[in-house]
């Protein structure tokens, strides 16, 4: 082992700078996760809560929430893809096409919804999608009996609405950074706009796409507000099951087992996803050379 | 609005700086400065969010602090009363509305709620006492409360082992509401309720996100007790609920928006909500089911670790005033348990069928039983029904 004497003070500085983050992670993430893991092997106390025990009963009971797992595993990827398809053209327009003078204003407009809590904005959707909202307007033009609120479609609308800005920004940043000379070069060498997009713009923005997708997907896996409001309690995510287990039926051990399972599922899917996107990226890099 | 806005235009930055310099030099008072610049108004708005910014008032109520955290139910108070309390005492209310007693219990069990006053229902009180989550009341601090004015049938659960833990708020019934323009078959029982849900009214029924009433309704429809904790009976109730689930509009305790928009035609309903709905929409009919249901009393209680105890007593005492009780009821539509408040209400309310159902209908109703709250099977049945 080679040890550079000079790097020692730096070593201490690094440790000092990392200390707050480390403490935060230890006390706010790792310790709570350990508690959840311990709880998941316990039993529900007689009046609710946790009673110490060592049993796999909670894990054996997981199939009782199968539907919630299924819903989450269907809605999270589809919601991510829909957000991506909506966000990419918008990010592309903002980064590549729009006049510099308006760029800032348009970017602010994308952020404006964040000034109001998602809870209030989602509550507003109940009325927009409810019988006195869009369905009533559709009736005026002769389309009757449309039911929007408390359907899977309404939940999907809420998801795309809520998560779009989170997808737009990473993609926008990666598109913004692209050297415009590359696009000109492609054009000069006879590349069609489509070919230029597929071979230069898209590959160079993949990092933004991957980041945006990851951000949205991970948050969607834990989503509970949108299905609770726009699904009327009928479209049930694993997040809703957790809220229920901790805040209604007070079954902490079973809730912990569901949480642990969710974390494991997330770790597996996210690492598979990262491996996949990294491989694609290296593949593209090679083809670019 | 006060004089700040009398010219109806905001202050210019130039004028603001001028006034600020005058204030700095001491030629005007702080109060004048805040008034002319409009910053006083801004402080008032901010004060609601951050009461510590508010100037303290001297008043007859003594030092009650400036904040009170209050956990209650949706559509259950008259805003005029709440505002008046704040105006009189300088105590700002932070109100949280809940959909079930179990949700309140879950928060109290987890600890650190910061609640000063909350509104539990009769069947929960022995549980709260056994778990050490609420404190006995010092009735000498509630001069407006008159125990003898309350019908013991409603007030009894407040006393556990000879100690008074809470004072009654209102009593009521749990039945269902029907939009008669949409549903013509006039359902009379919980059995009818589920038949219509899975028949003519498919897609338009709401059941509560609340184990007591939703499981209770299914149990009554099957001919069992509203309070059953028999696992076999609960299994049948669960099967009925899961069978009806595809036909439901929603599972929520906040059912007024759905009923008002016309999306929902029928819902499990507390009678005060029924009064509120019928006042605006005459086609709404409240039904006390012939095969059973719930009769209940709600109470004011103070959690064990309430941070603003003086304000809590002042608030409960204020709300026990018969005049204030009557003014509450004029908005939320539930009957007071206090005969002094009833005496102040319009006579028509005494014969109102939603408030005071016929005796033969009342006979079938049950007070919720304490064990339904902690029973693990009931808790899991409602959770499975929702996640099915």
Description:
The complex is a heterodimer of chains A (289) and B (388). Chain A is built from 13 helices and two strands; from the N terminus they run αββαααααααααααα. With 289 residues, chain A is mainly α. Chain A has one domain: MetI-like (MetI-like fold, Orthogonal Bundle), CATH 1.10.3720. A two-stranded antiparallel sheet of chain A has the order 1-2. In chain A, helix 7 packs antiparallel against helix 10. Chain B folds into three domains: 37 residues, no CATH class; 159 residues, Periplasmic binding protein-like II (D-Maltodextrin-Binding Protein, domain 2, 3-Layer(aba) Sandwich); 155 residues, Periplasmic binding protein-like II (D-Maltodextrin-Binding Protein, domain 2), CATH 3.40.190.10. In chain B, the strands form three sheets. In chain B, strands 6, 7, 8, 9, 10, 11, 12 and 13 form an eight-stranded mixed β-sheet that branches. Chain B has a three-stranded parallel β-sheet with strand order 2-1-3. Chain B has a two-stranded antiparallel sheet with strand order 4-5. In chain B, helix 4 links the parallel strand 1 and strand 2. Chain B is globular, with a radius of gyration of 24 Å. Chain B starts with 12 loop residues before the first helix and ends with a helix. Classes of the chains: A mainly alpha (289), B alpha/beta (388). Chains A and B meet through helix 12 of A and helix 5, strand 8, helix 11 and helix 18 of B.
């Amino acid at each position: 082992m080679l040890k550079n004497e000079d790097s020692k003070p730096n070593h201490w500085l690094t440790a000092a700078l990392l200390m707050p983050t480390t403490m935060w992670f230890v006390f706010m993430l790792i310790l709570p996760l350990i508690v959840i893991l311990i709880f998941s092997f316990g039993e529900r106390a007689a009046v609710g809560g946790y009673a110490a025990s060592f049993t796999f009963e909670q894990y054996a009971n997981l199939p009782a929430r199968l539907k919630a797992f299924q819903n989450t595993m269907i809605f999270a990827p589809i919601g991510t893809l829909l957000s991506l398809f909506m966000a990419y053209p918008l990010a592309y327009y903002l980064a590549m096409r729009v006049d510099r003078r308006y760029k800032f204003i348009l970017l602010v407009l994308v952020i404006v919804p964040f000034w109001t809590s998602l809870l209030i904005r989602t509550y507003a959707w109940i009325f927009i999608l409810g019988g006195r909202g869009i369905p009533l307007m559709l009736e005026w033009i002769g389309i009757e009996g449309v039911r929007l609120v408390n359907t899977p479609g309404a939940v999907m609308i809420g998801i795309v609405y809520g998560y779009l800005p989170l997808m737009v920004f990473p993609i926008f940043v990666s598109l913004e950074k692209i050297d415009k000379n590359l696009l000109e070069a492609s054009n000069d060498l006879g590349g069609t706009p489509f070919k230029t997009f597929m071979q230069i713009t898209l590959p160079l923005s993949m990092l933004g796409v991957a980041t945006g997708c990851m951000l949205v997907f991970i948050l969607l896996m834990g989503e509970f507000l949108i299905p609770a409001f726009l699904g009327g309690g009928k479209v049930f995510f694993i997040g809703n099951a957790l809220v229920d287990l901790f805040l209604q039926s007070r079954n902490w051990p079973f809730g912990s087992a569901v949480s642990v399972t969710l974390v494991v599922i997330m770790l597996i899917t996210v690492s598979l996803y990262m491996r996949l996107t990294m491989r694609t990226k290296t593949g593209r890099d090679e083809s670019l050379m | 609005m006060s004089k700040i806005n009398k010219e109806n235009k905001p202050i210019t930055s130039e004028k603001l700086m001028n006034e600020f310099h005058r204030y700095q030099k001491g030629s005007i008072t702080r109060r004048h400065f805040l008034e002319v610049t409009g910053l006083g108004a801004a402080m008032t708005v901010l004060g609601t969010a951050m009461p510590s910014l508010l100037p303290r008032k001297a008043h007859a109520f003594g030092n009650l602090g400036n904040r009170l955290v209050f956990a209650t139910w949706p559509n259950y108070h008259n805003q005029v009363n709440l505002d008046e309390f704040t105006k009189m005492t300088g105590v700002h209310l932070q109100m949280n509305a809940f959909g079930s007693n179990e949700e309140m219990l879950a928060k109290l069990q987890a600890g650190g709620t910061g609640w000063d006053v909350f509104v539990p229902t009769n069947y929960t009180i022995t549980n709260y006492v056994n778990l050490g989550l609420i404190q006995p009341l010092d009735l000498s601090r509630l001069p407006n409360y008159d125990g003898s004015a309350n019908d013991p049938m409603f007030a009894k659960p407040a006393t556990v082992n000879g100690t008074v833990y809470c004072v009654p708020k209102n009593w009521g019934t749990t039945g269902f509401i029907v939009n008669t323009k949409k549903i013509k078959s006039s359902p009379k029982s919980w059995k009818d309720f589920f038949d219509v849900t899975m028949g003519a009214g498919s897609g338009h029924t709401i059941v509560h996100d609340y184990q007591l009433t939703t499981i209770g309704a299914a149990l009554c429809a099957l001919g069992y007790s509203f309070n059953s904790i028999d696992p076999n009976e609960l299994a049948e109730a669960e099967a009925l609920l899961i069978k009806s689930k595809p036909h439901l509009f929603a599972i929520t305790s906040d059912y007024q928006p759905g009923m008002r928009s016309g999306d929902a035609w029928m819902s499990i309903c507390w009678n005060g909500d029924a009064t509120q709905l019928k006042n605006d929409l005459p086609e709404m009919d409240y039904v006390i089911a012939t095969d059973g249901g719930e009769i209940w009393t709600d109470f004011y209680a103070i959690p064990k670790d309430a941070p603003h105890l003086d304000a809590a007593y002042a608030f409960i005492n204020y709300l026990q005033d018969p005049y204030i009780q009557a003014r509450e009821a004029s908005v939320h539509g539930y009957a007071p348990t206090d005969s002094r408040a009833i005496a102040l209400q319009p006579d028509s309310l005494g014969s109102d069928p939603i408030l005071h159902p016929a005796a033969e209908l009342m006979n079938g109703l049950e007070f919720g039983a304490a064990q339904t709250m902690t029973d693990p099977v009931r808790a899991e049945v409602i959770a499975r029904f929702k996640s099915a």
